[in-house]
Amino acid sequence: MSLALASALLGAPAFAQTPAGDALRGKALFDNPAQASGNNGLMTCSSCHGSVEARRATISQNTGGAYDPYANIEFGTAMTRLVAALQGQQAMAAFRVLTAQQVSDIAAYRRTRRRPILPTRRN
Ligand code: HEC
């Protein structure tokens, strides 16, 4: 992927200057991009991808890992995969209006999902 091209398409600074992502804002953007970004008409991410866990499993699998909804994905990987999808997937073209900050926020949310702690049995 050309970073210069990604920057041009996203109206964003180069990847090295990527703003730090905020996972809470990322969750709001993933759940309801239209409302959270102020761009009316954007579909929800889950309408195509089901859930953030499903996306995380796909990213893990596509970068050599297991299909694991709680895979440990680095921020940089989440960011690279999302930027590539925004550029390359025609289905996601509408989301090119997102700012660099919003893309970072979504990547941060993707990264920070943790495996749920199952209750342990006490005797
Ligand atoms: C209209 C359908 C659609 C919507 C809405 C959509 N996507 Fe996608 N997205 C796709 C398709 C199709 C692909 C390529 C196939 C795949 O990875 O499932 C893709 C790929 C991706 C990938 C690349 C995964 C990888 O590493 O291979 C990421 C990350 C992603 N989408 C995130 C998002 C996020 C975040 C949103 C919401 C802001 C979103 N998508 C909204 C259709 C959509």
From TrEMBL:
InterPro entries: Cyt_c-like_dom, Cyt_c-like_dom_sf. Keywords: Heme, Iron, Metal-binding, Signal. Residues 1-16 form the signal peptide. The keyword Lipid biosynthesis does not apply. It comes from Piscinibacter aquaticus. This is Cytochrome c. Residues 21-114 form the Cytochrome c domain. PROSITE patterns: CYTC. It comes from the Bacteria. GO terms for molecular function: electron transfer activity; heme binding; metal ion binding. The keyword RNA-binding does not apply.
